[in-house]
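=== Structure Prediction Worksheet ===
Name of assembly: unnamed complex
Input type: mixed (protein and possibly other molecules)
Chain count: four
Listed entries:
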Amino acid sequence: MWDFPLFPEQASTAARHVDQVYFALIALSIFFIFSIGGAALYFMTHYHFRRDADRRNVPKSNWKLEVIFIGSAVVVSTFFFFWGAYKYLKISQATDDALELFVLGKQWMWKVQYPEGQREINRLHIPVNQPIMLRLTSQDVIHSFYVPAFRVKQDVVPGRYTTLWFEATKTGTFKLECAEYCGTDHSRMLGEVVVMSAPDFARWLANRPVQSTMVAQGERIFARAGCSGCHTAASAVHAPDLQGLFGRRVALSTGETLVADASYIRDSILLPKKHVVAGYAPIMPSFEGQLSEQEIFALLEFIKFEPALNDAANASPNTEKNDANK
Amino acid sequence: MAPTLKNYLQDGSTLRSWFLSTDHKRIAILYLLSITFFFMIGGTVVGLIRLELLSPAGDVVSSDTYNRLFTIHGVIMVWFFLIPSIPVTLGNFLLPLMLGAKDLAFPRLNLLSWYLFIGGGIFTLVAVVVGGVDTGWTFYTPYSSTFANSAVITVAAGVFITGFSTIATSINFIVTTHTMRARGLTWFRLPIFVWSLYATSIIMVLATPVLAITLVLLAVERGLQIGIFDPSLGGDPLLFQHLFWFYSHPAVYIMILPGMGVVTEVIPCFARRPIFGYKPIAYSSIAIAILGFLVWGHHMFVAGESIYAMLMFSFLSYAVAIPSGIKIFNWTVTLYKGRIYMKTPMIYALGFLGLFTIGGLTGLFVAALAVDIHVHDTYFVVAHFHYIMVGGMVSALMGGLHFWWPKMTGRLYPEFLGQVSAWTMFLGFNLTFFPQFLLGYLGMPRRYHTYPAEFQVLNVMSSLGASILAVGYILPFFYLVWSLRWGKKAARNPWRATGLEWEYADSPPIKTNFESPPIVHGPAYDYDPQKEVNFD
Amino acid sequence: MSPASDQPRHAQIHPGAEEGSLREIVAVWLGLIFLLCATVIAHFLTHGMLALLAAFGIAIAKMGLVMFYYMHLKYRPHIVWIFSAAAFLWLIIFFGLSLSDYVTRHWILLVP
Amino acid sequence: MTERPAYSPGLAHHFETHAQQHRAATLGIWLFLGSEIMLFGGMFMGYTIYRILYATAFEQIAAHTHFWFGTINTALLLTSSLTMAMAVHHARAQNYQKSGRWLVPTAVLGVAFLALKVVEWYLEYRENLVPILGWNFDAHGVAQGPARLFMGFYFVMTGLHAIHLSIGVCLVVGLMVLLRRDKIARENPSKVEIIGLYWHLVDIIWIFAYPIFYLVSA
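=== Predicted Assembly ===
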């Protein structure tokens, strides 16, 4: 009968932090419930109408008491705000050495892509003690990527990228759930996160059938979709150079600058007129509806990985630039 | 005393005299019947949901049916029960009585608001018949605008229409409070219930229009395919969430503030002493109404909101906890040196105190960024807001209904049964919703038709609690109806309570409430704990 | 809101009272048309931030004229001022907090 | 508060004095106007966010709205506010005949606004600028998505404004009938004033719709 869990497993670096705040808040709650409930119960019995008690000089208000109460409430609230926020910033902090995976949510499954080209559905194999960064997007409605044992959750929003960081501390298999209602099979949009030791993970990765790496896929798409027609040094079209673009600050025609992150590059492919780079004419056509989210993932990997871009630039035939302008 | 004046219930018995009545008391009765009807529908639906969740496999109804069930449960309970509940029934009935007025400022508008309410309700029920709606009560885009295959627009229209009923009621309440107070009834002599209705109305009048326009934009996007939130056009689904929660978070305070008002009336009466901290309680109602508008972003902590906005909304969410804390503190101190009678309304009021405290404290969990990313969209949140809405608001409604039942109907309810059902409700409620906190922290997402087997024990407990809770609701329904005919006749003031409605109006009141306009000479809650009293 | 401030004022406001002369009404209209001309000229002469400021500055001025004179706000007790200001105040809350999300979404937070 | 007079035409049973009734009506209508501001505020908010996200595209597509239609319409509405203010002025002086005479140009100007608006919509339909259903949408070289968003907001907001104005015209016509029958004094003397306030609010909403749709083009 009592063989059921009351508390979830801790399997990530975040879990410890979240649980600390959780238990502290439970302690606070117990304190308040007992002090308020205790006071109420005491008054209820002591001043019950059948009991004789001193009921003279009933206090109607006491500003000193109110100020003390409000003051302590402010202190407690502020403390928990800062602590909760601090812990959140800690566990959502990005590290540079993270393994980046791409996750696409759709009704009702999770598609995972590894940089080396492996793909999985509803399952995510990751190495233990290694920071993982997920780049998430959805191809239809809003989903939410939730791994209770890791205490992390992030909505997966169509039309943009969201990111999620975690680092597993235990090997094993953990539940992955969709936490944002997404239609008929919302409750079956489940998966598993399989955490393996580093050597096991390497072996697993090596044994997965791979057609080509994401960079190579991206390279093909770069040529096929006509990107290479303009965005190469050899091109006659005046288009921004993509070499070393990722992570660089870009000056826009509006006078602003922003960092060329994944979202920026995604927007530039689908909504090229949203951010026009300073000094260039807004001539790039939109690839909305022509590239799938997974193809954009691949392009992104390709653009990030400069040497290949360089090769493509040299190899791409000039004839393709006409496609880009159509 | 003029025995020739008929009370409002006897003053005309034709259908016309009810359905075209502009008497706030009759309209309150119409509303009471309507929200009871909607509560029963919402309750039946949730019965099916709890039945379904008895087993993890999801074998009672199909997932599409389940999605329609929880959506209609949410839509009906939020817009057709919780938001109107106390304001349109007890508020409508009592506001003019408490102010010493003959009616609300705009009696015909009041009647119109009931028709709008019913009209919106009909749309919603029609939608259930023509295919239901499966978006969840939050109508998140792009699911609702593009992907859902159900009667979204019909339900949105129903909620839209009901919204105008809410706006009409709130305008009526604010204007009445400003212009129709009896001679000598200054703002700080008002019963706190009036303050809380006033604060509620501020929220209603400023937030509801935003819901209305959000639903219009949703309907336009769904029906006419005009892109508003559509991500494929570069639209932002989070914009919908901003618009929606700008209304729907304050709406939570629409649901709880009137309950706080009721509790503040009941506790002094059964503790036989003046309320402790009148001004802090009054001001905190207004503070909640205003601060309640500043925190909606905490519904979007995992939605991809900016980190800066998250920090700000988290901070403001902690700030809004403080005025609620002030109220709890003052209610508790009000018991000190009182003469405490544990009558049914008092049991409900103290039950409210306990359950609302738990609901409020768990609000601190979901306001903390670190904890929220884990419990967001899980049963933890479900339990949290049910503690506030069912544990808080419904307890207060039941307490208020028992407290003013003699005034409204002229009959006393059976006290023993009242106490039995109050305790049943308290027990059933905790058994239903406490396990859901554990479920949520374990990681059971909300709106799940099927769930992992290890969650079954807690879910069975919850369903068991729900059936006890149902008994706690059905019992009062029967004995209150019974009391209409066989209950003891109530005198003018069976609770020996203060307030114009008790001291100057008959039970039930005459059509124009008072024989002559009352004059107020002193503060509210002028009880003396040293005096013994005998209730009827 | 002082507690008893509404009570005695009942007697002062009477529907027949004269508020705003005919001359005032016409003058306000001239002002409004002048502002409209100004906004048209500004539209053709300015661009960028200045155009935005001009367009909305003038719109706010027009609104002020209509509210204060045509809607008689000038002659109303303060409680009506508060009521009319409330909606604008709430719009500021609405815009401010929503924009706080959109404007800062791409800012990068340096974590301690 | 004075004792309620025994016979008092136009005073509802639950009020004590005319002043109290008038005060309630004034507060009530202002609250209603506040809720209307919030209603339109939601759309202005959505517009503002996209305006910030897609500044360039919005400036470009806004060049395809009809500036002079918008400007003339603004002038029409401002003038209708003048005539409405006149009507209210005379009603307050209990000169209901004069008041009724000023309501005629008010309604006419309102109808003229709506007529121009319809012509303008028709022109936009001809130019394939209506982003509705599967209709052909020509973004005129501007990015499709943001252009559709802009025109979407344009049609929803001007449409909702037109609905409000139509209601206003109906109310004004109704008032004219009441004044003709000389019922207004007995019914409720605040009526002209209240409808006037509503009319002015519809005007104010247009005052803000005008810059966001017609004056943003670079």
